[in-house]
Amino acid sequence: MSLTIVPIDCGTFTNVERSAHQYLSGFGEKRDAQIIIWAILGGPAPIIVDLGCGTPELVEERYGRVLGQTPGQRPETALKAAGIDPEEVRQVVLTHLHLDHCVGLDLDLLPNAEVFVQLEELRYAAAPYPPHEAYFDSAILKKLLPIQASEYGGIRVVKGDFRLAPGVELIHTPGHTPGTQAVLVDTDGGRYAIASDNVPFGSSQRGRTLREWTPNGIHVSLDQCYESLSRLHALADFLLPSHDPQVLERRIYP
Ligand SMILES: [Zn+2]
Q: Is 0.85 surpassed by the pTM of this model?
């Protein structure tokens, strides 16, 4: 069995403040943030990591924001173009509950999937610090909070590191949010980390030592941001950033 990782392009938020993604860097500078759904293929069933933020209609209606998305970037179309049969997906990992990673859940595209979220993320999303409130979506939380999730039976709450499938491991990497998790994937070309917002852009980690890292501008603990980056570097050969259009230059990893 040889696992591969496919980044699926689901659109772009343009003119995003760079300092929001890269701490104390590039104030006033704008850049594009790509919305990416990841597929891990080659195992018994495809595994999906993150669900993006849905469609431009959904984003406009809920947040009054503009999501750039072509018809081919609509999640249902993009998943199928990547060769994924939605019925076959059994596991979805939400790396954290910021809206650009999870609101796609409301499209109900994957009818047979269980959704894996960290306990600490659910706790924080229920009562975040006020500057972070706008990044969470109350409709999604209603679906996910176990105490009221009877209408959505597929939620699986995990605490800490968790072996999801052969060659696929969830790694709890707090800092950006308390329950951010990365996904380690063992491939024939080395061990990859789908790094989530620990590493939004390739330029957030220009090397393997501390001075070459720029933590996410949005965080609950700078200490934890550095510890999580350090851990990812110790565990993985390659880190795949969460919002960098450059990762789409390759169709498949490795
Ligand atoms: Zn985030």
A: yes
